[in-house]
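Task: complex structure prediction.
Instruction: return structure tokens for all chains below.
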Amino acid sequence: DVKVTQSSRYLVKRTGEKVFLECVQDMDHENMFWYRQDPGLGLRLIYFSYDVKMKEKGDIPEGYSVSREKKERFSLILESASTNQTSMYLCASSPTGQPQHFGDGTRLSIL
Amino acid sequence: GDSVTQMEGPVTLSEEAFLTINCTYTATGYPSLFWYVQYPGEGLQLLLKATKADDKGSNKGFEATYRKETTSFHLEKGSVQVSDSAVYFCALVNRDDKIIFGKGTRLHILP
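Output:
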């Protein structure tokens, strides 16, 4: 079974802090994705990556950056956290052309 | 652009009732179609998929048929259980290999 592991299930940070969300997959998938999920808005794609050291902006990249130094790890970075970034964050991975596999999510609260 | 539209929730049913969650899509060419399920406190799990017209995906008693003529992929189950309470997402992967999600439908099953 594919395993996508997000480092924290729940995280509380303060406004202005730099926040790192980590995601690791164990199936050598080329593609990795970060989404945020908010009530009434569904899933929105923040950033994705098709290969190591490669990144592409999704639909809502503002206020975020990403890092993919190794194939199995894809990090989401909130450079200066703000309260409107309080959300559920979901990481996913997939082989090219195949369905995505999701982690359990990180519920992030920015105070 | 490509899009997925699914019925707004929440949908509330009694145990053993028949379930239909409607999903229609707009896309050029022949996208692959998916249903994902998200149980409380968890990430998304792939429930079923169909990759070409008239394909029927099935899993855990759920079924959906890829209808090219009506651009639909409705999810059905003959007899729902309390354990089916979750959020269901319809999704497509288009010819650019981009996944597009519907906004999700919350399902409540009453005992």
